[in-house]
Amino acid sequence: MATITAKRERVATTSTGGGMLGKVLLYGVLILLALFFVLPLLWILTTSLKPSDEWLSTSWIPQNPTLGNFSNVFNNDAVPMVRAFANSLGIATVFTVLTLALDSMAAYAYARLTFRGRDFLFALLVATLLMPGIMFLVPNYETVTRLHLLNNYWGVILPGLAGVFGVFFLRQFFQSIPKELEEAALIDGAGTWTIFFRIALPLARPALATLGIITFLGSWNDFLWPLLIMNDPSKYTLPVALATLQGGYVFEYGPLMAGAVITAVPVLILYVFLQKFIVQSVAMTGLKG
Question: Which are the contacts of 121, defined by CB distance < 8 A and separation ≥ 6?
Answer without folding.
Answer: 110
